[in-house]
Amino acid sequence: MASSVNPTVRRRRLGQELRKLRELKGMTAEEVAERLLVSQSKISRLENGRRSISQRDVRDLCGVYGVEDHRIVDSLMQMAKESRQQGWWHAFGDIPYSVYIGLETDAASLRVFEASLVPGLLQTPNYASAVTEGSWPEATTADIERRVQVRMRRQERITDPDNPLRLWAVIDESALRRIVGNPAIMCEQMHQLVQFSLEPHITVQVLPYDVGAHPGMYGKFSILEFTDPQDASTVYLEGVTSDLYLEKPNDVQTYSVMYEHLRMQALNAEQSRQFIRSVADDWARE
């Protein structure tokens, strides 16, 4: 059964605390790795929250850092225990972007730029199914159904009446023009985009072709922000076999500035709705 505790967030916070303890001790990750006879990469993954942390890992690290306050050790051990619990997404098996889902589940706001596809949180089931089938040629019917189920479950964050995710999406015109599935699926998807864009916590902007060159030409990216100040804003770059998470302030600032330029170059919210409606009409005539 999935726990209400978000294991991804627990790992991040625990990793941050362990990094602080190491820095207070004046040790490098390499020095810690040598003391524990493990690789330096393991220490780095523990600190950035990308690797599951066992209570034994916490005990060993606290020993190296000379932590004598049992309350601190007990608190870190409890965080380690919670970090190994399962989030709702684990019920769907091996999801390659599970770390991202954990962050998205706990985020307060999300800014996303998409160059080729409608953002996952705004996709219809039919569009999501066609995207998965087209981008994953070896997928079985069961694989596709599972991915679509996960995507629809993720959408609960933006439809949650009590705590909806604040979503801002800038979408390149090519994502609206590229046929995914068939014209009927595209028409349905355009109408859903318009409906979502009417929600007060969702903003959708279209970046038309006639803008020309723009900062998003290097590819799609997402910026996640959190309510708790302990949780650093994170830039997410999705890859085919691995993903990249950027948390350094300079990196986040760079992508935030890029996003502001994209927002300024894109059509405003109302112009975007009108544009999407016209694209829907085009697909209806196909």
From TrEMBL:
SUPFAM superfamilies: lambda repressor-like DNA-binding domains. Gene3D superfamilies: lambda repressor-like DNA-binding domains (1.10.260.40). It comes from Streptomyces gamaensis. InterPro entries: Cro/C1-type_HTH, DUF5753, Lambda_DNA-bd_dom_sf. This is Helix-turn-helix domain-containing protein. SMART domains: HTH_XRE (SM00530). Residues 18-73 form the HTH cro/C1-type domain.
